[in-house]
Amino acid sequence: MKKVDPLRHAERMAHKQKIMNERIARADKEQGVLLVLTGPGKGKSSSGFGMLARALGHGMKVGVVQFIKGKFQTGEEAFFRQQSNVDYHVMGEGYTWDTQDRDKDVQAAEAAWEVARGMLEDPAVDLVLLDELNIALRHGYLELDRVLDDLQARPPMQHVVVTGRHAPEALIELADTVTEMKVVKHAFKEQGIKAQKGIEL
Amino acid sequence: MKKVDPLRHAERMAHKQKIMNERIARADKEQGVLLVLTGPGKGKSSSGFGMLARALGHGMKVGVVQFIKGKFQTGEEAFFRQQSNVDYHVMGEGYTWDTQDRDKDVQAAEAAWEVARGMLEDPAVDLVLLDELNIALRHGYLELDRVLDDLQARPPMQHVVVTGRHAPEALIELADTVTEMKVVKHAFKEQGIKAQKGIEL
Question: Which keywords describe this protein according to UniProt (chains A, B) (predicted)?
Fold first, then answer.
């Protein structure tokens, strides 16, 4: 165990408390935030779903649009469909490499955006999760400018979380908070461990 | 909208499908994974809570130990305490800069580890979330070797998710999947936007 002088520890922590309190006092704007979770590392969608849980814990209303549909029903879908205050839509047609049909993918993305736009126009929805929207943008299935316009026109207190690799630069510009998830290690890709329920699915 | 030749698109996607299917076929090991979410970016704990939701959606049993307790009850705590199959413990004594008392912090971390160890010995618990454990390790509140031993001795199919900045190198070594969350932008720190319910709390 590290040996630390308790008095020095208390002093250092009092100093840190002062800094943290100043930071909290400075951050006094109340507004809906646009959060983008991107990069190749694991944890983007799951983080979005964690925020959903957090919002529901505060009695907030949430909406979810999943732009990419996997082959199997996921744990998150089964779970959040059982909860109240959740409007859940899985709109994609499957991975782009499974559909192999660009026109069908574009139609699915357009239909998904219509549902998303309905949420972005509704001040009763406190948090909107647009899961894997970045993938649809990356493939050019949706017009970026339209998406950015609809995001900007949303109710001022509404939070939006956008996930997926390759977030476009203009979306990063517009966002309030952006995290890039870096792969340090990946069990599935590097170590031959099957995608696990509760972790990947 | 991007102009893409539909035939070329279908060919490229068929090629990608082949690669993805080979990767899935190669990943045939079934085992509990140890996942570490670290780095300064937003999304570590929320990602852990998202995996909790995912696991619950598959009917799995989960355990949570939060090593750092904030000043307020969080949305995630309120939410997951209402769910079945969740064993939820908030064990910390508050942020280190608020307690300013190292001995008290060490005692709280030890008590938290006892609860965590009980979960790590129980094959009926499918997923264990050790939220902000890295912070307790970083401050030397817990012996790293003991923590690593207990993690390694857990039931082979049990998943563990560890969150918090500054994950120790030896924990990264032991882990199957590790993501480092990089800050690209942060609303609270840089733009004076207050920590928002559903996002930070």
Answer: ATP-binding, Cobalamin biosynthesis, Cytoplasm, Nucleotide-binding, Porphyrin biosynthesis, Transferase
